[in-house]
Amino acid sequence: MTQTFIGNASYLNNGNDIIVVLGHGQLARMMYLGATQLGLNIIAVDADKRVCVNAVDKTVLDITIEQAFSACKAITSEFEHLPKDLVKQAQDSGKFKPNAAAIAAGADRIVEKALLEKLSIPNCTHQIINSVNDLKNAYDNLGPKLILKTSRDGYDGYGQWRIFSAQDLTTVCNDLADFDFEFMPLVAEQCILFEREISLLGVTDANGQHKYYPLTENHHADGQLVLSLAPAPDLTPELQQRAEAIHQAIADELDYCGLLAIELFQTGEQLLVNEIAPRVHNSGHWTQQGCAASQFENHIRAVAGLPLGDTSAQHLVAMVNYVGEPKPSTDIMKLANTHLHWYDKSVRPKRKMGHINLVADNNQALQKLIGQVHDLLPESLAKNLAEIKE
């Protein structure tokens, strides 16, 4: 079904009100919700079908991408795995925030690693893999435990192999016998022992000024986020400052504008960068209830040239990812200080269907609330959450 946007295309003449988002998933949806309260409108782009859509109900709009780019105030993205020609088209408009270089750094692990090395930012010891023989050499140099990752298109545990033994190496080498390394180089990372995974979300305005949310502690299962705790337990000013320095170096190098997420491994007082994401991020969903200005609102503020909102934490928040299961019963919504965010997508395994934000004023109350939500989750989700709490 196609509809004319707000009645007619003349609406596009008021470009100061419009932000175009490349991508039309749940992140674009939540950016739309953040934009409307600022008096701004979102046009989302289905990057595969190359059509403009409503960010909430996905209705196709009677507007071309060229018309939207021409009329809008700014163009941004909800994810980094975009067609290169679409990124170039956005960059050529002069309105793309963040820019094509930032998208490339988030989309390609080899580009990302080169950026980190250029800035002397600690990250996992790694080796670029262009053949099966390279992988064997990497195992000799970096083993006995490796994480092998595709250089592009890998997320939520997809495009990864764990090589924890010589037998694993043989199996993976056999699996990659016909792999096209020229099309898709791989990256082998040394598997390290770390205390926890944390992430930092920072937002940079159009004048290069930075604001940071408190560090978030993240827990995963099968490569996918299960639970975020914010602010991160046992967060010290020194740890926050160390993470902010890393973030600022990356943002400044990329001439960044908007929300940038950085995933980190903490080992003692050392922080190693795992990945960067040039966009709003799953581990920042807690900001919807935890801060005066959520990551979505602040990203839109930044790309629209507006002043940034407050990023300090007003509460303790736990974010529970809701993955691969139908919408929960209303019993969860009966719990005080519990907020369901549903994405209205068809159910399939490992698909992010929604998330639940739990709000408390102290850790004891937060842990109690997590336990109450756990008891109401489907078995597959409850199992992952129980293993984390143990």
Outline of this structure?
With 390 residues, this protein is an alpha+beta fold.
CATH architecture grouping of the largest domain? 2-Layer Sandwich
**Structural class label:** alpha+beta
Q: How big a fraction of the residues is strand?
A: 25-35%
Largest sheet: 9 strands, antiparallel
Number of strands: 19
Radius of gyration: 21 Å
Number of domains: 3
Helix content: 25-40%
Principal-axes shape call: globular
CATH topology of the largest domain: D-amino Acid Aminotransferase, Chain A, domain 1
Feature tags:
390 residues; alpha+beta; Rossmann fold; Dna Ligase, domain 1; D-amino Acid Aminotransferase, Chain A, domain 1; 19 strands
Describe this structure in words.
The protein folds into three domains: 95 residues, 3-Layer(aba) Sandwich (Rossmann fold); 66 residues, ATP-grasp fold, A domain (Dna Ligase, domain 1, 2-Layer Sandwich); 194 residues, ATP-grasp fold, B domain (D-amino Acid Aminotransferase, Chain A, domain 1, 2-Layer Sandwich). The strands form four sheets. Strands 11, 12, 13, 14, 15, 16, 17, 18 and 19 form a nine-stranded antiparallel beta sheet that branches. 39% of the residues are buried. Helix 1 packs across helix 10 and helix 4 packs across helix 5. It is globular, with a radius of gyration of 21 Å. The N terminus is likely disordered. It is built from 13 helices and 19 strands. The protein is of the alpha+beta class and 390 residues long. It comes from Psychrosphaera saromensis. Pathway: Purine metabolism; IMP biosynthesis via de novo pathway; 5-amino-1-(5-phospho-D-ribosyl)imidazole-4-carboxylate from 5-amino-1-(5-phospho-D-ribosyl)imidazole (N5-CAIR route): step 1/2. Belongs to the PurK/PurT family. Pfam families: ATP-grasp, PurK_C, RS_preATP-grasp-like.
